[in-house]
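WARN retry 2 of 3 for item q-0093 after timeout on previous attempt; input resubmitted unchanged.
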Amino acid sequence: MPALTATGPTGGDDVGAGLLAMLLAATLALLAAGYGRGAHELWARRGLGRVLPGWRVAAFGAGLLSVLAAQDGPLAAAAQRSFAGHMTQHMLLLLGAGPLLAAGAAGLPLTLACPAAPRRWLARLRAAGPVRWLRRPAVLAFTAGGIQTVVLWFWHLPGPYLAAEQQPVVHAVEHACFLGSAWLLWAPLLGAPRHRLPAPAAVLLLIGTMLPASALGAVLTFAPRPIYPVAVLGPDPLADQQLAGLLMWAPMDVAVLVASLTVFLRWLVGLQRQRPERVTSPESRSRLPARPGRVVP
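OK item q-0093 returned
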């Protein structure tokens, strides 16, 4: 797979990259098959589109395709030529594939696709005290936010980044970390409603996750000289690094701000429907119909 081929590949690297490409294809095929089987079983029991809406199935499929797009084709070729191309891969995994897979709410379909014995083992695992605590939306979300921040900064340090460029296995681990941390982060925001994070906490999580990523993008953009070895940068090393910083900075900020605004507005709309007297002006409040046993001020 081109995306997993190191700079200046040898014969061994080509073999390793080929094996990793086969492993990726097999993993994605298993995820697609398992999710499809679980969705079919859910719809057979509850009716088409019930429990798991069709748009979630489409989102999960789009997430798998995004992973393929990041790992192969023109984007992978661009990643071999420049740091900016490589950063585009990272953003596609973090802001494209991860949120789409999270929106697919894959937990229930994949569990239903498992044989009976693993399904019972998963049920016992979920019932364990530490796992129940970890699966609380707030705990899971803020743990995921911390994990993504650490993952983002670690893999963009010169040492780990150079190792990922030179060794296909390390490169695969890098991309798996980006995809897994993004999937985990967005699951309490876009996943099943029963596991959804409350809106104020969701906004806090998004902004808190955006700030360290923006700081990293700013460091790459405004650094007076290349931070990384020239061998892993484009023909103009400093310009390539600055463009990569902007590609991290701008899309991350825009995506997070749009998501935060959407969550906040949906929360306000829901609050207005439930308790209109709390989110309306005094003039509008005076025109609300009085509830039994309550005097409208």
